[in-house]
Amino acid sequence: MPIGKTAVVGAGLMGGAIAAHIANSGHEAVLLDIVPEGGGNRNALAEGAVARMLKDDPAPFMERSDAQRIATGNIDDHLDLLADADWIVEAVTEKVAVKQEVYRRIDSVRRTGAIVSSNTSTIPWRVLADGMPEAFARDFLITHFFNPPRYMRLLEVVAGPATRGDAAAAVADFADRKLGKSVVACNDTPGFIANRIGTYWLIAAIGAALDGAVTVEEADALMGRPMGIPKTGVFGLIDLVGLDLMPLVGRSLRDALPADDPLRTVYGEPEIVRSMIAGGYTGRKGKGGFYRLDPDSGTREKQVIDLRSGEYGPALRPRLESIEQAGRSLRALFEFPDRTGEYAWRVMSGTLAYAAGLVPEIADDVEAVDRAMRLGYNWKRGPFELIDEAGAAWFAGRLEGEGRAVPPLLRAAADAGGFYRTGDGGREHLAGAGKYTPVARPPGVLLLSDVKLAGPRLAGNGSASLWDLGDGVACLEFHSKMNALDPDIMALIGESVEIVGRGMKALVIHNEGTNFSVGMNLGLALFALNVGAWPMIEETLKGGQDAFNALKFAPFPVVGAPSGMALGGGCEVLLHCDSVQAHAECYIGLVEAGVGIVPGWGGCKEMMLRGLAAKGPGFGGPMVAISKAFETIGLAKVSRSAKEARKLGFLRDGDGISANRDRLLADAKARALALAEDYAAPEPATIRLPGKTGRIALKMAVKGLARTGRATAHDLVVVDHLGTVLTGGDTDATREIPEERLSELERQAILALIRMPATIARIEHMLETGKPLRN
Amino acid sequence: MNQPVIAGYVRSPFHFAHKGALVEKRPDDLAAEMVRGLIAETGVDAAEIEDLIVGCAFPEGEQGFNLGRIVGLVADLPISVAGATVNRFCGSSMQAIHIAAGAIRMEAGEAFICAGVESMSRVPMGGFNPAPNPDLYERNEGAYMAMGDTAENLARKYQITREEQEDLAVASHARATAAWEDGKFAGEVLAVETADGPVDRDGCIRPGTTAEVLAGLEPAFDAEGTVTAGTSSPLTDGAAAVLVCTEEFATRNDLAVLARIRSIAVAGCAPEIMGYGPVVSSEKALARAGLKMADIDLVELNEAFAAQALACVRELSIDLERMNLDGGAIAIGHPLGATGARITGKAAQLLRREDKRYALVTQCIGGGQGISTVLEAA
């Protein structure tokens, strides 16, 4: 039976956010907690959780209205609300007795066969199910979400020996397709996969920093970018999750593990951590953690603690010779002969060897472990991918040379040449001595990385490539730095239209980068500005417009498949696609105003065309569409989800949203093939716009923004140009103008704006700080 | 000469635009309900009505076509009753009363229904397709100046402090709240049918509004300014209707006369301080009535903004104790086209209720105008 109605018991940080994410998926969720002591509102905990989450940043809800799908209550008065739930998640405190009491109450009302799962992060299934009725155990499993549940893609699922196979399958399917989670099946061992390895790593990293005379910033610099781990590294991460949680999680994990487990060997509770917690230095939620913002000077200067003295001082950006010398070579960093190279080796060799010793105890294969660390800890590469990168044989050899144990699986990888290889079936992982099996992809999952391994690419250059997805569908991939749009990408767009036009059916634009595209390469633009290369700038503008129009008017359908940010030019690419299949986590916006210009690659034009075509609510002539586009572009609005992008007009009603990023490309390909049946390219449109009258109306509207301090002096200049473009320049309401006229107006506006010092200052500021200048 | 009198007044509950109970109510339907309600309340024979004159500040969309005729047809008035729409922005339905009064003096009809309506939810202020004259705007920005900016200009010009403005807002809410509690709106507010059931109470009034609460609001129009949402009238949905007829018609048909219309006036002022308009129009109306401010017992002065109202109070030497006895637009709301009929009908009712002789009714108008009516007890 598929899951429809759901419930969450426990409205704490995790429980509330899990309910919110279920609501995001369009499903109803009941959210219950206990009746608070001391009288008053009996639903205060659940209601308070929803109210708090509406203010939280990052937002647990994709749209504010999603909160309406949560029915709040308390477990004493509203237990019966669980009666028609198909799946009930328990997310109460990590105490077995408390959890089991909750299970008994759930069991008294749940319908036969309703699935119950625990969001425990450490307690094994067998302990939670112990003493519970057989019928309950059959429907019971562990679903371990990572914080924050909306954004972290990992879901660890543990089915016990008694758990019905179809119950685990139903939850996994719901989590995959509706919640967008990548489900990793874990064995019933303490800490499951990600926290087992992650906790070892954190404890080892703190211990080694205390022993090895590296500073907090140095440790984070070494553990962060070089390892492909978020730049918070170790200490920044602990500040984020809370120092006080470390001993709690660490202790419970240690106590649950066998005496000879390596985690017990490295385990320690350093005195400095203890005294920080006692002093209220519990991290970002407290007075500060290993890092803090100077509370005294008023400068909010970033400070860092000295691990030995316990004193705070200014945080430095360490420039480590080891990192600079090693470049991209992990092995060179591990071998670098100073305390920092030794630190990197000591922490990572321990962690990676620990992971190698845990397969198949905690998971069936290495790929599951790598995926768990990638999606649960945001590592770019999992432990086994890291070992492969350093060289499995070298890695095993060095352990051996140091007299340390080499786990059998690592030995096998060293002998066979790594944990992964590319075979006939694509990517394969080591599955025992000398044996490789293909990395399994569930039906409906298509990854560009797999396609790329299979090769060959149809065309490409340093910034973009064209791949064959099969069935006559090609995929255009951006892979420049941050997927910024540059002349190479524009060139390949033109080439791709030719190639696909010669006998292929459709084109999908997609990549697996963190962000689809952050827009125009500003560095290149600033360079051209500084040397006054106006013809080149005009050429870049026209070239981009032509490239995007080539996509729009191509004789085959083009489908955009973005995930992450699609800003500026990245958004404009999507606006020119016939259709978009967006990942639910899509942050789309025309942010050009932030750097003092207007969208110039057809962003203004396309927003006007779709605004005029859309039958919005209410009445009105072109000013309705003009005003909406003016507001969206003028305020540089960025959607905080794909659903919100639809409200802002970046996505159309017919565009699709995929909850699971791994399904995005397959969904987009299917969409492209459906469009390819009887496809007819659009005809260039003609439109009527009000011209100067409309521009004055917009100008009037903006005046108030300036007076209330919401718009700066240069904002007024920029939006005046924007208004000119959106209202059609010197046209008149009675005249029909071709859409191409708006492209011309875009170019004119930009060429005027980029000559202004205030615009140049905005571009420079953005390049230097990553933030818009308010001048 | 025929004497025009006010012989009936009703209004709908007033509710916040975009979030209130009347959001889904079409303005033509709302106005028609008030017209029918007025006929029922007064007992006037609809066949005797010469014209239905409907004031509306943005007569387009659902307020479009010839709203006056449409409302008459929606209300099933006899075919013989004519219909016209009149726009003088916020002064629209007071202008409708003036037109009727003038026609009566011309002996061009005996009985008129003067109504007003605005659904600020369904037709935005500024209209759907604002198309200002570019040349005029470049020559004279004030012509299209946002209302809040004109209020700030007056606050600055007359040195009206934020605290004074907030005191007026607090009083407005307190008086409106008390009037409801004392049943004083019973003879005036008619229930309106909506999809969610009948609506019979005002929706904009905030009982218990305090100076402390208002002091916490951000300036709404100018970061350095003093005017806030709390000292401005809200965007409102609502309708009102007034029966204007000859005194002789009222006697012949046994209608209850509320007040005589003694004099009327309109006048222009600088658009940048449009809220000053009541000063110039009231001076004219008082002079035409042969009266001085000291003779006036009751004043209904539309509170478009507290700053604007207080500037007029100061210039006209109005006694605040005699002004807006049941609260003003800051509390009750200001559906642009309906307000003129509301405050004129209200003043006529108050003359009877309070047993007073003269009332001055006045309001400011965007673009820089004032409109005034002097009423005398019947």
Give your account of this protein's structure.
- The complex is a heterodimer of chains A (775) and B (378).
- With 775 residues, chain A is of the alpha/beta class.
- Chain A folds into 4 domains: 180 residues, 3-Layer(aba) Sandwich (Rossmann fold), CATH 3.40.50; 237 residues, N-(1-d-carboxylethyl)-l-norvaline Dehydrogenase, domain 2 (Orthogonal Bundle); 189 residues, Alpha-Beta Complex (2-enoyl-CoA Hydratase, Chain A, domain 1); 83 residues, no CATH class.
- Chain A is built from 32 helices and 27 strands.
- Chain A has an 8-stranded mixed sheet with strand order 3-2-1-4-5-6-7-8, with helices on both faces. A 7-stranded mixed sheet of chain A has the order 15-16-17-19-21-23-25, with helices on both faces.
- In chain A, helix 26 runs antiparallel to helix 30 and helix 29 runs antiparallel to helix 30.
- The longest helix of chain A is centred in the middle third of the chain and has 20 residues.
- The model of chain A has no long low-confidence stretch (mean pLDDT 94).
- Chain B has a domain of 259 residues: Peroxisomal Thiolase, Chain A, domain 1, CATH 3.40.47.
- Helices cover 34% and strands 20% of the residues of chain B.
- In chain B, the strands form 2 sheets. In chain B, strands 1, 2, 3, 4, 5, 8, 9, 10, 11 and 12 form a 10-stranded mixed sheet that branches. Chain B has a two-stranded antiparallel ribbon with strand order 6-7.
- In chain B, strand 3, helix 2 and strand 4 form a beta-alpha-beta unit.
- The longest helix of chain B is centred in the middle third of the chain and has 20 residues.
- The radius of gyration of chain B is 19 Å and the shape is globular.
- Chain B starts with a strand and ends with a strand.
- Chains A and B meet through helix 26 and helix 29 of A and helix 4 of B.
